[in-house]
Amino acid sequence: MGEQQRGLKVYVYRSAVIGDCTNGGITSKHDRLTIVGTVDYRTGDQPVISPLDKHDQVFEPKPDSPAAWLVVGKYGSRDRYVVPAGTDGQPDPRWWMHGGNLVSSSDARWSDLVDAQYGVRVHDRHEG
């Protein structure tokens, strides 16, 4: 990958009551993530993997805010969730499930990206 990825910062929301249900997922270790692109299933059988638009490429992923990807439309056109990036910066190809945590941001660019003003599930629980 030639250019350093950049994206939008989002903040992790987790329950103080139930503890970690991610099985050690990314949101059990970090309070922020950097959304660097989208995995869009709305265009056909194969997803379209794209970096964010230039105006959304604001922050570099850091050790305290690692890269993640927004998955759009896999289980219906309004479906949105976030998955971790792999070591290559691309969406981690393993099978992920919701670990109970959400991400959101007050940044209007985030609301525009998810086409809503609510928290988005993080699929960062992996078993295997």
Q: In summary, what is this structure?
A:
This protein is mainly beta. The protein is built from two helices and seven strands; from the N terminus they run E-H-E-E-E-E-E-H-E.
Summarize the biggest pleated sheet.
6 strands, mixed, barrel
Low-pLDDT segments: none
Name the shape in a single word. Answer: globular
Helical segment count: 2
> What is the string of SSEs from the N terminus onward?
EHEEEEEHE
Radius of gyration based on Cα positions: 14 Å
Mean pLDDT: 93
Overall number of strands = 7
- The residue fraction in helices comes out at under 10%
This entry's quaternary arrangement is: single chain
How much of the polypeptide forms β-strand, as a percent range? Answer: 25-35%
